[in-house]
Specification:
Blueprint (H helix, E strand, L loop, with lengths): L1 E4 L18 E3 L8 E4 L9 E11 L5 E11 L14 E9 L10 E6 L4 E6 L5 E8 L4 E6 L10 H11 L8 H7 L9 H12 L11 E5 L17 E3 L6 E2 L2 E5 L19 E10 L2 E2 L4 E7 L5 E11 L4 E8 L9 E4 L2 E13 L5 E9 L3 E2 H4 E3 L7 E3 L5 E9 L9 E2 L10 E8 L3 E8 L5 E9 L2 E8 L8 E9 L2 E9 L2
Parallel strand pairs: 6-13, 6-14, 15-26
Antiparallel strand pairs: 1-3, 2-4, 4-5, 6-9, 7-8, 7-10, 10-12, 11-14, 16-23, 17-22, 18-21, 18-24, 18-25, 19-22, 20-21, 25-26, 27-28, 28-31, 29-30, 29-32, 32-33
């Protein structure tokens, strides 16, 4: 028989009013069960058992708190006081979840018998569960998850944006799991070489990660002591002399998926929040065999982007791709992969680009090998590839392509409502100008006192400026802003929140 005291589980309990030596430790809230006795009846298999208990700490006023504790009760191998169950076996079970606590399907979990050098394998269910039953007592085993396929799962140019911002210290990644996901080449740090490798996977140049697997796993019993430097973690668990059932759980991390939108099911659409689709524009062209074809890709409905990726489909029996040229987006051969009538482009920058309808993002150059019409043979693929754009707030918009004839757009000078409104701190004021020229934006308080004024030469079409309302001395309430341009004046109201 073994006697266990509740105070054996105490790890320096403290109370603000009661001295440490006056605290009472008990297995019940009344404080009357300070010790317990255990015998072989508590060890059904005759070898060992895990027993859940509650250890209470009680002060001199009768107030109490408790914590859940586990007693590992084991028969002595010297005295062998308890009758062992013949052929004693244990089970080893667990779950594998992602950082959002969602189960991950189809992870290969290996149970290696180190003495016999034999392995059993189980695949996780859709809730991330695995189980090994009938595991022999007293053996030494290693539990290790593994998954190294579907490298593109959850990966996009948005992840490149986030990794680059982290490297430049513009927006550091805020969790150890994101840092592990950003270590593409598995060298225990995040650097520009990770950007290069990840872009190759996005473009389809590579289908795997150099010196790394597509998924990493951390045992839940392992504590990451330095979240900003989480590397050097174990990815397997060693069980020495197994004699009781074990539950071993892991956290799964998809390499490259910094924003955490990987799906748990291969082939299932990834979870991401997208705004309405935004169309790029290409002027339609009719061409003849042998003609060089220059295709200007216009921003059209994309007004704000810090990164884009897209797949153009073209008929390679009608024209052949020759090159890409930068427009407002700085692109070169490292941003492009061309194969079998598909052009995959991945581009990002450190800051967002504000765009107008007619801005040329880049040029695609082809040579016609047959007569044709551009509208029949060029499109953006949204079915088999995530063609999308990311704005300065990292919102995702699907990108589509419009091929047609550009009507001459008459731009009228117009002042728009500030956004956001109402607001705290920062807001943006947008306006269109019929022609490029001189214009003035002014801000007034409710009494008509001018608080802010800026005059400048602005481009034709849409313009936007961001105002920090705190810098002009306004705190809260109603303000008015005004646009003055050639033959135009207009005002609107804005509301500043405290």
């Amino acid at each position: 028989m073994a006697e266990i005291w509740s105070s054996d589980f105490n790890l320096k309990s403290e109370d603000g009013c009661t001295a440490e030596e006056d605290l009472v430790f008990s297995f019940n809230a009344a404080g009357t069960q300070q010790n317990l006795f255990f015998d072989c009846s508590h060890i059904p298999n005759g070898v060992a058992a895990s027993i859940s208990l509650q250890m209470y700490v009680i002060d001199t006023d009768g107030n109490s708190e408790y914590c859940d504790v586990i007693l590992e009760l084991q028969d002595s191998q010297l005295s062998n006081a308890c009758q062992d169950v013949d052929g004693g076996k244990a089970s080893v079970v667990g779950t594998i979840v992602n950082a959002k606590n969602e189960g991950v399907l189809d992870i290969e979990v290996e149970l290696m018998d180190m003495e016999m050098q034999e392995a059993d394998v189980d695949m996780t269910t859709e809730v991330g569960a695995y189980a090994f039953d009938e595991v022999d007592f007293y053996g030494e085993y290693v539990i290790e998850p593994y998954k190294n396929n579907d490298a593109l799962n959850g990966v996009s140019t948005l992840d490149l944006v986030m990794i680059q911002r982290h490297i430049l210290e513009l927006a550091p990644l805020d969790s150890p799991y994101k840092l592990i996901a950003a270590d593409i080449n598995g060298n225990d740090k995040v650097s520009s070489s990770d950007l290069l490798l990840l872009r190759k996977v996005i473009l389809g140049i590579r289908t795997d990660f150099d010196n790394n697997t597509s998924w990493r796993f951390i045992p839940n019993t392992f504590e990451i002591e330095t979240p900003e430097d989480p590397f050097g973690f174990p990815e397997k668990v060693i069980l020495n002399e197994l004699y009781i059932d074990k539950e071993i759980n892991f956290t799964a991390i998809k390499v490259g998926d910094v924003n955490g939108n990987a799906t748990n099911l291969v082939g299932k659409n990834e979870s991401s929040t997208r705004s309405d689709a935004k169309a790029l524009f290409v002027e339609n062209q009719t061409f003849i065999q042998g003609q060089a074809i220059n295709v200007e890709v216009l921003a059209n409905e994309v007004k704000n982007t810090v990164g884009m990726q897209m797949m153009f489909n073209y008929d390679d029996k009608v024209m052949t791709y020759s090159s890409i040229e930068s427009g407002l987006l700085n692109v070169d051969i490292t941003n492009v992969n061309v194969n079998n009538g598909q052009i995959v482009i991945s581009w990002n920058d450190t800051k967002a680009h504000k765009l107008n309808n007619e801005d040329v993002l880049f040029d695609l150059n082809f040579v016609a090998i047959a007569d044709g019409n551009l509208s029949n043979i060029l499109d953006v693929n949204t079915k088999n590839f995530k063609s999308e754009s990311y704005d300065d707030q990292l919102n995702i918009s699907e990108v589509i392509l419009e091929v047609g004839t550009r009507s001459v757009e008459i731009v009228a000078t117009q002042l728009y409502q500030n956004s956001p409104n109402p607001f705290k701190g920062m807001t943006s004021i947008g306006f269109d100008l019929e022609e490029a020229g001189f214009a003035t934006i002014s801000i007034f308080d409710i009494a008509g006192k001018e608080l802010y004024k800026i005059s400048n030469d602005f481009a034709k079409g849409y313009n936007e400026m961001t105002i920090d309302i705190r810098s002009i001395g306004a705190t809260s309430g109603i303000l008015y802003y005004q646009l003055k341009a050639e033959n135009y004046i207009a005002s609107k109201k804005m509301i500043v929140l405290q």
